[in-house]
Write a structure and sequence with these properties.
The structure is a homotetramer. Chain A is an alpha+beta fold. The first copy, chain A, contains three helices and six strands; from the N terminus they run ααββαββββ. Chain A starts with 11 loop residues before the first helix and ends with a strand. Chains A and B meet through helix 1, helix 2, helix 3 and strand 3 of A and helix 1, helix 2, helix 3 and strand 3 of B.
């Protein structure tokens, strides 16, 4: 996958993977890190009844969990090695019920500054061999530098 | 707790409680329904390492999970008995790290229409006997009526 | 311009144009309707000192004015003839200072339902022959039907 | 009006007033600065047909213009003298048609950091001697420091 972005830290994949592995919630919801490219990260979960709302669909907060991490790590790929990443806000639109067997959050950086990053995630639900867009997120992330 | 809102269904508490119990994700994250009043719902989770991000704080998506349900059920208290509730979008601001021993989402209806509701949640973290505001949500909910 | 959307009213261009002409604020800010296709609307304003904030850039609220109308009319192109369009909420990210000689809001429908539409706008600033993305909006619109 | 916030610059009122006067769009829409207290700013406009959408209500973008400036200047009251203020994003909910004779945006700081501020605005429409809440905004602002 090509990219318009140039990573400032060549070890960005290892850095993202390590941080992802430290997010215990990712194991709790069985999330897998699929893609880590400059400015682009994909995270996937399988359908699990334990993560559903009253109609049997994945809860919007769980959808937000993988969309937020996808946004955050997409931004993190572009940060220098010494920075940490912090989400300051996000906005989610729920476009269709989160029904399916797998759910993939595709996060992409929209704007990369020194401190402020804007990233977007799409949530794609897979069912019957088809992918359907079920939610979208726009988030603002900050790079935090050691003092 | 008094309220400016008049519920259209006197059985609103039973209706909210039943739906909450059907959200399997609420059991997964050990959420408890604390308050169900007209236009106001509170949901609480204890700190759990299984729900954390890389720094040991509750993940923003999990915070969103209880804030979204608090918004949704706050709206649901005001809907007629035959309606279902659907979140169409929300916006979250992360004001401080979600550190503490308990996290309480306080959801309140801001505007109640026939179809469209606007609700807000605050997320309060309890630590050392103090409550601290760590996140806020504004959400738009819809009442879905049978055809 | 091709489109994935099929308009329900073949007179959608006339309907959008008439409504746009009734928005007096569009004349106040010298806005022009550039494109009206199924699910896609473009609106442009020239730079005007009368619309600036303290640093001489176009005020974020004015940027929002044309982005909101672009989202709303993009949704309106897909509504049946008897419907009115209403914005219920939007979210704006300001990616760069709104500096330039012309500002073009490109609105596109992301999801078209019977009642609820989600649309997105990008704001492109033109300066020195180049277009630069300076803001983005995600909005939720409703189709209001006569009773 | 008392306040939980302590301004870092005792000249904050003069600083806000000067910047407000430099926003040319405020004169264009006949905006007046009503209140400037630590963490709180109010801005008002009279009804003007020149600022309306197709139904004769104030356009949501114009409502956003005074709500954004109210959020921004509320944050600005708490910044040190050398800082500039920048909006990075905001979210608007439109709760009712903006009908009335005067429209007052009340902006309040929700969280004041060194760099990142979160503020909220309410838009109150005055008609027939009554104030009615017609819109709300949550915004993220940054303090920009000279290098």
């Amino acid at each position: 996958m090509s990219s318009e972005f140039e990573p400032r830290d060549p070890q960005f994949k290892a850095r993202v993977t390590q941080s992802f592995n430290e997010q215990q919630v990712m194991q709790t919801i069985q999330a897998a890190l699929l893609t880590v490219e400059p400015g682009v990260v994909e995270i996937e979960i399988p359908y699990q009844p334990e993560l559903t709302q009253q109609d049997g669909f994945i809860h919007a907060g769980i959808s937000s969990t993988i969309m937020d991490s996808a946004c955050g790590y997409a931004a993190f790929t572009l940060m220098p090695a010494e920075a940490r990443v912090l989400t300051i806000e996000f906005k989610v639109n729920l476009l269709a019920p989160a029904a399916g067997i797998r759910f993939r959050a595709l996060g992409k950086v929209r704007k990369a500054g020194r401190s402020v990053f804007v990233a977007e995630s799409e949530l794609w639900a897979n069912a019957d061999g088809c992918d359907r867009l079920v939610a979208s997120m726009t988030g603002t992330l900050m790079a935090i530098y050691p003092k």
